[in-house]
Amino acid sequence: MATLIRAAGGVVWRPAGDGVEICLVHRERYDDWSLPKGKLEAGEHPLAAAVREVSEETGVAAVPQVRLPGVRYTVREGFPKTVDYWSMRYVSDDPRLVAESDEVNAIRWLPVDEASRLLSYSHDIQVVRDFAALPPVTAVCGLARHAHAGKRGNWSGPDTARPLDKAGRAQATELAALLALVRPAHLVSATPRRCVQTLEPLAEALDLPIVADSALDEPKPGQDPQEKALAAAGRLTELAAAGADFVACSQGKVMPGALARLLGTEAVDDYRTPKGGGWLLAFSGERAVAADRL
């Protein structure tokens, strides 16, 4: 059985006049125009690979926003290949991100229609169409559930003071690398110690403070879970409406209901999140338009 090749990339966009333009790359070896993408490294998360490959092939720093439908095709050597794509907002031409690809010899920024006509492959054209169908994304939230903190019954102090355990600290470090891709301007956490500690590696890496916010806390005994879900959803909406990308950490008993409210669905179980897991949330103004598991 042929080995499956896994790759990731992005539709990188920037404002241009009354619309947007997207970035295409030219590969000298194949004499084709395509979307920037590349193979995953061993153990690499697809989202991290997408951001890395975009930077290496274009020299552009970009923030991932919405996961687009992936594609599957057979490469010229006969191997099956899958590519995960994200829409990405252009941040800057970063001089530290000198294009490292030995395949790309030119890039072009073009309006969506012109880009679609220049692209060499139908699967890339479809990805661009999927991108063009998205509403304008004005803010992104990396939403995490706190990392592992042992068992409540094994902790003798107040539950709000229960800290991360060894596994949780490792999870928090791994999460930091992924959440940093959002390039957050703000870090917000539920008030329990384990939630704040989950964001500490990210806060240290980015030199940002962590703001504790009880709106993201799970319900206390006697509190209405639906009211807490509504409060958490409302707080995330307020933060997104400010127009800056941010990261938030919450708890397992409030996140599913909050996400379901944000996305306008009753399928609460679809948003259950393991400890140390998370979501990439995209907002258009005050409306959540996508939620993709990290």
Please provide a written account of the structure.
By secondary structure, the protein is of the alpha/beta class. Helices cover 29% and strands 33% of the residues. The chain is built from seven helices and 13 strands. Strand 2 and strand 3 (32-34) form a beta hairpin. Helix 4 (166-179) crosses helix 5 (193-206). The two termini are 29 Å apart. The model has no long low-confidence stretch (mean pLDDT 94).
Short description:
The chain has about 290 residues and is an alpha/beta fold. It has helices at about 45-60, 110-120, 120-130, 165-180, 195-205, 225-240, 255-265, and strands spanning about 5-15, 20-25, 30-35, 35-40, 60-75, 80-95, 105-110, 140-145, 185-190, 210, 245-250, 280-285, 285-294. Strand 12 and strand 13 form a beta hairpin.
Short descriptors:
294 residues; alpha/beta; 7 helices; 13 strands
Reconstruct the topology from this structure.
Blueprint: E1 5-16, E2 19-27, E3 32-34, E4 37-39, H1 46-58, E5 60-74, E6 80-93, E7 104-111, H2 112-118, H3 122-132, E8 139-145, H4 166-179, E9 186-189, H5 193-206, E10 210-212, H6 225-241, E11 246-250, H7 255-263, E12 278-284, E13 287-293
Parallel strand pairs: 1-6, 8-11, 9-10, 9-11
Antiparallel strand pairs: 1-2, 1-4, 2-3, 2-7, 5-6, 8-12, 12-13
Helix pairs in contact: 2-3, 4-5, 6-7
